[in-house]
Design a protein that fits this description.
The protein is mainly β. The chain has 1 helix and 15 strands; from the N terminus they run E-E-E-E-E-E-E-E-E-E-E-E-E-E-E-H.
């Protein structure tokens, strides 16, 4: 599942534009727009390390028949890499310091809190194994600074089409009533429609048309 979240920090301003010697003050919003990239701990993996070598320097070299990937978030399907940790029930968490998805190998660091020989063979990973993302994966990215126009009213054909948010209001001068963005399309309030029909009926009764 790809999750993309857009966060906008806004600051209303009124820039000045000169057209045909006339000064127009156009309301806009200046906003920082960012995409949040993330993933969470994997489920217990079925394809555990098939080769394990304790290098004797508090590091492990391990290999897989099927290289592990992240299972959810915007990193879903991407290979697990440096900065993450391998978690093994009964053994502990081991930071990944090298990763080669092509060769299907990793190098892990054995933290000082564990014995240097805590893991020596694939059998030491006989219990559940999973992967924990590092802070380098859950980050804000692609930060841009944009000018977002705020259009409050106008004819039907000029309704806004960009930077829309659910509940946004626009007064449609063609319909002579407000419309609201529901995330898919512009909709009208039933009460406004009823009021509009009453006024039309009253007008026809008064003027005969």
């Amino acid at each position: 599942m790809l999750k993309i979240t857009t966060i906008v920090t806004t600051l209303p301003v009124f820039p000045v534009m000169c057209i045909s010697n006339q000064i127009l003050r156009l309301p806009v919003i200046l906003g920082y727009v960012s995409t949040y990239k993330y993933t969470t701990n994997t489920e217990y993996v079925h394809d555990k390390p098939t080769t394990v070598v304790n290098n004797g320097d508090r590091t492990l070299s391990i290999g897989f028949d099927v290289y592990p990937t992240w299972q959810n978030g915007s990193h879903a399907g991407k290979p697990v890499g440096v900065g993450a940790e391998l978690g093994a029930l009964g053994k502990g968490n081991f930071p990944i310091i090298e990763a080669d998805p092509t060769a299907k190998t990793m190098k892990l660091r054995i933290p000082e809190v564990y014995k240097a020989d805590v893991v020596n063979a694939p059998a030491d990973f006989s219990m559940e194994v999973y992967f924990i993302p590092g802070s380098n994966l859950n980050t804000m990215s692609n930060m841009t600074y944009e000018t977002i126009p705020v259009i409050h009213s106008g004819p039907t054909e000029q309704r806004p089409t960009e930077h829309l948010v659910v509940g946004q209001q626009y007064f449609d001068t063609t319909l002579d009533m407000p419309v609201f963005w529901n995330g898919t399309k512009w909709v009208v309030n039933a009460a406004d429609v009823g009021d509009r029909l009453k006024r039309l009926c009253s007008h026809r009764q008064t003027y005969g048309k």
